[in-house]
Design goal:
Length: 252
Amino acid sequence: MIELWGLVSPNAIKVQILLEELGLPYRAHKVDTFRLQQYSPEFLAMNPIGKYPVLIDPDGAGPDQPIFESGAILIYLAETYGQALLPMSGPARWETLKWLVAQVAWVGPMLGQHHHFYLHPSETDTYAGKRYQRQANRVMDVLEGRIRDRSYFAGEHYSVADIAIYPWLHWMNSMGYAWDDYPSLSAWHARVEVRPAVGSVYTKVRGYQQDMAEFIETNRTNPEAFNAYFGREAGAKQLPDFGIGLPSAAPK
């Protein structure tokens, strides 16, 4: 069975959506970022960057080949199990890959950085806070323009590009954006939202998302908690051995 580490971030959710779309059985493990579990030795053995998601497919890439970076995971799964969501050749393939990589390299980083500073009241009026607000505005405008005259980001067919982008826009209200200001994106969001795979994933992770929302709300004015959670004062090399074991499915 496929093993997946990471549940609630947009990057973890998009992998789960693709797994559900493909009908692949998998076991998902929560990585407790509140306790910095992503820096435990067991997790770093799978991904030295210390980020999730990480996927292991014993019957595909092999039990000793962890795949990390969400874009790489989506490409691996689509090419191995579901080529309809990532065409293997022709213009449709390149349209899909362009927007998939745009999400990984631009949409996610810009919206993620904006969200980071938007959450922290003391940071919103700083140079960094204003910079990422402008960058996020640009992302939203470009995506709205792209989807205005087509059903999906790569054209008229749903693809891994939509799967990659959807979780980042699903929470746009928490970044200060309103769906009414982006009617084309709103219509696209509605088309994707009703897919059974999407509903299934969000039902599964709802409790974990509530935990994260409560943590953020409780600690919005607690710099010490935010500094620890977002790693503002300690790099991975400075972090101690937390002694936090991963689920038994983790490779040794």
